[in-house]
Amino acid sequence: MKKSGQATINDVARLAGVSKKTVSRVINHSPLLNEETRERVEKVIAEIGYVPNPQARALALRRNFLIGLIHDNPNPHTVLNVQQGLLEVLRDTEFELIVHPVDRGSPTMLDDIRRFVERQRPFGVMLLPPISENDSLAALCAEYGARYVRMGSAAFDDAEHMVASNDREAVRGAVTHLIEAGHRRIGLVLGPHGFRSAFERQQGYEAALHDAGIPVQRTLTAQGDYTFESGMRAAERLLDLSPRPTAVFSSNDTMAAGVLHTARQRGLDIPRDLSIVGFDDTSIASQIWPPLTTVRWPIATMARAAALKLIDEEDADDAGESLFVSTLVRRASVAAPAE
Amino acid sequence: MKKSGQATINDVARLAGVSKKTVSRVINHSPLLNEETRERVEKVIAEIGYVPNPQARALALRRNFLIGLIHDNPNPHTVLNVQQGLLEVLRDTEFELIVHPVDRGSPTMLDDIRRFVERQRPFGVMLLPPISENDSLAALCAEYGARYVRMGSAAFDDAEHMVASNDREAVRGAVTHLIEAGHRRIGLVLGPHGFRSAFERQQGYEAALHDAGIPVQRTLTAQGDYTFESGMRAAERLLDLSPRPTAVFSSNDTMAAGVLHTARQRGLDIPRDLSIVGFDDTSIASQIWPPLTTVRWPIATMARAAALKLIDEEDADDAGESLFVSTLVRRASVAAPAE
DNA sequence: TTGTACGCGTTATCAG
DNA sequence: CTGATAACGCGTACAA
């Protein structure tokens, strides 16, 4: 190293007696390189502890070694789990995670994202629902040469760009579980309008009823927006019904906790007076009382897979898994209806 | 703009008829500039929509316009709230947030962080507890010219580098609340060893007992590690005691939820048979049944303040608030002891 | 297979 | 106050 700071590619070149281009080739694993030369250079690199400067690389390559997480997801658990999954595979790589929340609903959202991608030039971008469903976002990433992976409740892009769960089938199984326990009047707390996940879960609910020959009644469906409070409000509507539903499927755990809360306030016993099934298997599901029967959404696994798609060498050919199955977790919030 | 991409500083210089250094001065708000020249340049900038390239700036300045969040915090809610607070002020600035979790306990943690700071050259760094208590981390940031702010349960650095809450006083108040409700046998679920927050909260607990002339009994203290499961285990130990404590202060909400869970499993009624007070006011506190009396830790506010310290123009002089008060939130988990 | 010369877009130096 | 010119550290034609 020359003066104060860090060793540069020039130092390595000088010490190894080669040109800096050769060092550059070593760094970037160029295939056309004399093995002997490579080893000599690598030895010097290791000796002086040289590490390429990311800023200079970014300038020359017009690409940063950053993975962007772009989202407007209202569910903290989802976001956090995704982050953890992503970071798990990014750790020990040269990539760092840059979190960029946006405001869907804002008319400038697309511009915001464009500026982000244009300026930061991330190597790859992870798109979370619900904005992951927006095709122009994906196009935008492609336009700037950023890899992207979209997360969703159904496959709506190529395997290379997609990690999807099959929410419809999972919910169908969950509601069938309720039916097999003897329930016929089953409420649905729907997710927010415009969310693909809300739609898929609704479809699963209706499919299960259909399978069992139970007619779908609109009054048994209450609108929610994935928040605890909306779950409480939905429960108030549902529990005012006469006859009351004996079970409720809630499109996520947070709302299910809200349903449980309201039911409790009304003096109902769970699961005796009301069975509840949620979706996500977030921590709250196992921490409330009684523990919630729910659908385990393998979100961290999906995030890990997404990270691999984003940074992996191989292009396109073997994109890895892109469909992940959710499974029912049976706990104490479901019982047979009280006669 | 010349060819395909974005306009550069050269385009601006050419169109404005000045040198690019002058444009650079405009961008960086250099004070020594002819007002007329400045206006002309700014006009051109606005017209062609020029935006400086962050990569080039980073290379020349040896400093990225990124704020790093370095942490090894076991509590997802804490991390997420900090992120939200940070992002709230970073939004609409040129800064982005880069999240870098580390592994305390790993012998290479300091090296990991050094490499991160050395390579990414973040403009500023936010350090979360418990690693924020590590002075060598702070020194490391300073060494690389990165601003830093440490978050903690007590002030252990200059105002400029600190956002602190006064946990001790807050817990003292919370436990006093229990005492005033008539409790004398009050259990403590302690936080993990080596955490300043755990220590401060314990001190607050003991101070409150002392104020009331109640002797501190070691058997009434159970070790926890801030996880739900550790709260359950702590409760098992505490509830096996004879006579049983009539109330428990838990050093965070997650463990308090664990205590509540275990108490429930044993058929205890909350708050009739056991009063519980938590700490944090995370979402679970208001979502479990009964809603938890807890100490509201203004963590998002602290994070916002930290972000301002990190990016604000003024140096040192007016560093803004650095001490934040936590307040007791009274809900339904506390009652007078059953005679 | 390797090296030379130059470009990436910005800031710093130091003269005018 | 302003402008040539040289960094900043690395990648890429293209030549050797």
TrEMBL record, chains A, B:
Can the keyword DNA-binding be found in this entry's annotation?
A: yes
* GO molecular function terms attached to this record: DNA-binding transcription factor activity; transcription cis-regulatory region binding
Keyword annotations for this protein?
DNA-binding, Transcription, Transcription regulation
| Residue span(s) of domain HTH lacI-type | 7-61
Q: Per UniProt, what is one Pfam family of this protein?
A: Peripla_BP_3
Give the source's domain of life in one word.
Bacteria
Matching PROSITE patterns: HTH_LACI_1 (PS00356), HTH_LACI_2 (PS50932)
Q: In this entry, which stretches build a coiled coil?
A: none
| CDD domains, per database record | HTH_LacI (cd01392), PBP1_SalR (cd01545)
Tell me what this protein is called. LacI family DNA-binding transcriptional regulator
Give the organism's phylogenetic lineage.
Bacteria, Pseudomonadati, Pseudomonadota, Alphaproteobacteria, Sphingomonadales
